[in-house]
Amino acid sequence: MNFMIPLRPSAVLALFASLACGTFGVMLVHHYPVEPPLMLTLWAVVAALSFLGWQVLPMLLPAVVPLIGFAPWTGWISFEELDLLVLAVAAGGYMALAITEPTRRPVPWRYRALRWRSAVGVLLAVFTLSMLISIWRGVEHAGGLQLGYYQGYLESMNSLRLGKSLFLVLLLLPLWLRAADLRPAAVLRLSRGAWVLVLIFASMGAVWERFIYTGLLDFSTDYRTTSWFWEMHVGGAALDGCLALSMPMALLWMLCERRPWRFVAALGVMLLGFYACLTTFSRGVYLAVPVGLALCALLWAVQRRHGQSEDGVPAPGQLPGDAALPLRASIAVLTAVGVAAWVLFGAGGYRALVGLAASLGLWVAMPPRRGAWPVNQHRTFLSLALLIALGVAGVGAMLIGAVPKLSYAVALAVGLFTLSLCALWRQGVSRPGQSFLLATGWLSSLAATWLVAAQWSEGKDLIATGAVLLLAGLAWLALQWPVRPADAVREASWRVRGMLWTACLLVCGVVASLGGGGYIGHRLSTGQQDLEGRLHHWSLSLSLLKGMDAWLLGQGTGRFPASFANQGPFEERVGDHRWNSPSTDAVPGALDSAGFPAVNTPTVTLTSGLHTLGSGELYRLSQRVSAVGGDVAAAVVLRTRQKTQLRVEICEKHLLYPLRCLDRQVEVEPQGGAWQVVRLPLGKAPEDFGGSRWLPRQLTAAIALNWRGSLVELRSVDMADSQHGSLLRNGDFSQGMARWFFSSDRVHMPFHEKSLPLHVLFAQGVLGLGLWLGLVASALWRCTLGAARRHPLAPATAGALAAFMIVGLFDSLIDAPRVGFLFYAMLALALGLRTPSRRLKKGEQPDEEEALETRFAGDDHEHDDRRPSPPRRSYLPSRFGPSTGR
């Protein structure tokens, strides 16, 4: 690293940008609600790492976005950890640009893979101006800017909260561009890796949540996964949007991966993402993700075919001999698997499905036939294998009632035996005895699956399950019966077989979710009713736009909740809370914002909704607590001018859905608006309240009003138990709303437009919507039919944006700042992708260092160990000279 004095205009500008980001970042860290010194240390470490690795960290930053949201613990929503992270990365990165000289030269412009054209830059600049106008209008409609760290959705800071996502991405774009100019291939690998990590982290959160709160295989409970996205505390589809954006990138990784273990890892990530998609119970996700994946696969196939047509060698990500299965065969296999899974699941539950999946795995793992032997001998061995499998089923059926767990032992033994043979003879079957043993193992695995279903169902539906498995075995024998067996699956490459098995597992998962859970069936059956509700809500949202200026320029970013609260239907308005600063200089008789006499201590005004209230419809003011034990009680100091009903609770609750609760509800009389202390005993906590040590559940303390249209002013809230003492922090609100959070578990419509185009229209008007649609259309065009269609990331970016837009037809999405950041990051990447030049100019020779740094992004993959390396075609010059494509 070579240091320099910043004298060039670009270096001076980078220095000022670094100082500005550093100053603002330190100011935010100083007001962080939880352990500011520790946060300052972490922030400084990230800034230092960004200074040293500015070519890496900015591109990897989206990977951690699903993990860095701690609002339920901090109470911060106007600013959050994403802002701190972006400012730290920008401060370090711009400082490196200002005072250091890169050790390598930028590659020639024609080899650069990330560049925004002038027309795109102008369109992006005009849209940014529209966003600035929208933020200004939102602040003005809120009564002017009132800076605060703990404001809610109805105050002026909400406009800044929702508008800053775009500017956080714009802050990182120069770092992305500079890094791409120096090492384009590395940047492309980092981009793909970052989005795969987005999927992994979001899906792992969904798996953890299901495992702790419902069980992994429970699809009947009315529990929709939220993962790490606290923005769903008032509904929304933050997790849906994240999955839609990241799933195509994981599919692209799987399609392009050549190493076996990495390919298996990619398959695992895809299955993890599919499980997370299923647990959202979102019809939009069920439609959007398959469309996005199909578009990604289609564009990748077009790229591959285009590469073959030019020079006859495999395109990046394709192996020689990677013959795809015929479409009809694939459809037939998946259809047969779906029918078999449905029958087996109805009789044998999840255990039978696992047995079926294991049998399918043995089938796709069977090595191809490499030798020739007499046809009569071959058919005799196949018939003998079928008889042995029928014998295994018959003997097992007779002993299944006498020997506990016999079916599982038989399935395990047969599976291990057959899998060992497949691994031993993985190069191919050259002798009839080998073929006989493999056929016996495969057919016996079907018999073992039937035994599993029979033992689990205690002898019910034996004929149906036996028939479907016998048909599967006979269909396989029919393929092997001819003189020259034609089994396309066994002749396919290991990658094709791996993807087929993954598709079969997905079919089994869909069958399990549909057959084993009433909730997902209920969600699918109420689609028409929910669509009518959406149409009514959209019509209502459009009616809130008053005047020509609102239609042209929008009502302002972040103003929908306030507009709905002020102008929406009276019976649909929800609750709210607001922190009141102490009025130490108030004149005698002055009133606070709630109409009570002003006091010199901070208070919180809490209101309830005007809709029909129930346990799930309450507006809750909550705080996370670490542990609860023994006798629990609460004390609330409040005042009110009307009769109300106060509810206090401590629940095992991740975000929206409580499991077990300690709660108490009591009616409160006004007492002339005077302060009063309300004491509520909550009872004794169970011994396992909060889960076990290794599988803990989140504990959330909350206070709410269960009385329509009521208002109280809170001076302090205290909850304590007999083991730990006081459980709450900042119970007197002296630190603002630090550590306090809020949620509306079931009532969501007043907080969201429930449509992404409508959200942009409401915030930025017709002009802003036109610009936004222009950016999205430009990105999709570039990655499908335009200049970036041959870029290795183009299929995934196009699929991600298409899937996101489909989910956005039925939800706002970018009214969650972190999801907005991910969307604008993907949009900026798609707009900046370009296919590097394939050839050098006549007579031009790049030096060796330049050639190494500008190699095609697909060159980071290793060759298949079992096949010779084919001649590689590159969009960029190779190590030994220009690529001519011949």
UniProtKB/TrEMBL annotation:
Record flagged with keyword Manganese: no
Biased composition annotated in UniProt, kind: Basic and acidic residues: 852-868
The keyword Glycosyltransferase appears for this protein: no
Region of interest called Disordered, as start-end residue ranges on this chain: 840-886
InterPro entries in alphabetical order: WaaL-like
Transmembrane regions: 12-32, 38-54, 82-99, 120-139, 159-177, 189-208, 228-254, 261-278, 284-302, 323-344, 350-368, 380-400, 406-424, 436-456, 462-479, 500-520, 756-781, 793-810, 816-833
Domain of life: Bacteria
UniProt keywords, alphabetically: Membrane, Transmembrane, Transmembrane helix
Protein's UniProt name: O-antigen ligase domain-containing protein
Native source species: Roseateles terrae
